[in-house]
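Course assignment 3, question 2. Fill in each field.
Student: A.L.
Task: Predict the tertiary structure for the chain below.
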Amino acid sequence: MPANILNLPCYKVLGIQENEHDYHIEVETTEVPAACPHCQSSSLVGFGRREQMVKDLPRHGRRVGLYIDTRRYQCRGCGKTFYEALPEMDEKRLMTKRLAQWMGKQAIKRTFSSIAEEVGCTEFTVRAVFNDYVSDLKKTIRFETPKWMGIDEIHLIKPRGVIANIQNNTIVELLPNRNKDTVVRFLHYLDGKDRIQYVAMDMWTPYRDAVRAVIPQAEIVVDKFHVVRMANDAMERVRKSLRESLTPKQRRGLMHDRFVLLKRERDLNDKERLNLEGWTKNYPELGEAYRLKEQFFGIYDAESPDEAQAKFIQWQNSIPSEITDAFADIERAWGNWTMPILNYFNHPVTNAYTESLNSLIRVMNRLGRGYSFEALRAKILFAEGVHKHKLSRPKFERKERRQAEPEPVMMYGLPGNFKNFEMGDSFARMAPKPAPEPKPYIQKSTESEKQEKNYGADISTLIRMIENGEL
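Answer field:
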């Protein structure tokens, strides 16, 4: 049998047995110890042997066990005994280093149970190897801090915080939860956090409080899609409130046509327009709700914060009393988040693309039943081939608008403390501000700084890999 069958020069193959599932390979080390590990004396004498079985990389679809004839020595200098060191072996487990490295990489994209079956070990061992592999990756992989940061959530068993690089459509971190303390801790230890310009988020107060506490220089922008989605939710509340007054046949029809009511008017075909007209004419409240939904979407056609606020006030004043309750959540949210919502009209940044990950993450979660959050996090952040190393061009931003002298407009429709303010005065601070002079950032010329930049896990690549079953 060839001596290099294992491709491990430090071992000599003595014999091999095989069956349908396994290779049993007998080996011994090619070099004897030169000195005692205790006193460094070179006066050594053999003192027995023992056989150790360690796992190695599977070959030809079979599991591999190495039976190492390990020699024991006694030092004549200090009298102590010791076994010879076994090169290329994992320090923690009875397996080769290359097997541990291979198992760690495979566990990123495969289930622990399939790897355990292929290697011939327990799932607990695979999980332990994987945890060590991820710990090593954390020390070597560093993602660039995004200038345009997105904070959102995805559901992995329960809601988790996700940090995105908006300019590059990448994910740079997954947080175990979306609590304020967790987000504050992440931002506090983030390198280069002073260079973050914008943070897009949904209307989750802990996100806003954490950003204001740690990176106050960043502009908070409420994600457009989380706002307009509330209009569809209000439309649904009105639709459901009508069901009690309908016959069973009419209920089924309204249930079937709910997608027509949620669709934008400009996207309806002729058949859908007829269905919509039938419902809205027969049920005026439904027609009013559809009108309000469409007009609310139209607020985002505004080209400035002042114009958007004026449209919102006009929209708010047009809500009929019969369906005020259905749209109360939108009014409340706009009142509590006015400035961050209006920031979108100066800085139209959004992290809506992370929404497409939710369904795919659930698929991956289901395929890997029993995975811990750390395992799923590693699969997303550290899978081979998902990292983006090239900086994308920034998204298009509107030019700064020259502000004309504003006409006094009374804000009688505004909730809370925003009532009875003039438009130009109340939103003067919403105008785009000139970018501050960047602080000098000196990079030391070290090998680590010369490494290729890593902007995180590319979302489109992640989606493709999950759809193709590669994760």
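Instructor remarks: Residues 404-450 have pLDDT under 50 and may be disordered. The first helix runs from residue 97 to 109.
Grade: pending
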